[in-house]
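Hi there,

I know you've been waiting on this one. I reran it after we fixed the sequence typo, so this is the corrected version. Both the input and the resulting structure follow.
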Amino acid sequence: PYTYQMYAHDGTLPPDNALRIEPEFRDGFHPCAKNGEWILVDDHRGTTVYNIETKEAVKINELGAIKPGFTLLKPFDFCKWNGTEWILNVDEQNAFKIKQNESRRDFLLNDTNTEIDILNRAVRLGRATEANKKRLELLENYSIDLYQLDLSDPDVVIPKKP
């Protein structure tokens, strides 16, 4: 619906002849002719906007206002759109922490159980030292502590491996 600035010559017809009048220029706007008159149209070309549903970044490449469903405000981790701004989505953040805690606990359990298996073999074969037997007891208690963690608490503290 807009025409860009053109050079009008004798014999040009509206809206092109309206362009003989110098348009107004302002930052963030681009002058365009509409119905034989200059109007200022929002110019966000080259600006990145964000989809308020998907958080996807999109670069604007045409004149006009920012489309509904998009914002200039950059989203951050674990956020949701509240209608005017991005706010922290505590549920999403907690779900992420719980998954991280589960992964960390599972890794530590696997690592600990591997060491327990080897130390149990040494005990069974009579090749374990007293230090091995003490380490085995520590690791067995540690594995039980890991197994009994309440991972529904996103702020659970995972104990360090002895």
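Quick highlight: The chain has a mean pLDDT of 90.

Best,
R. S.
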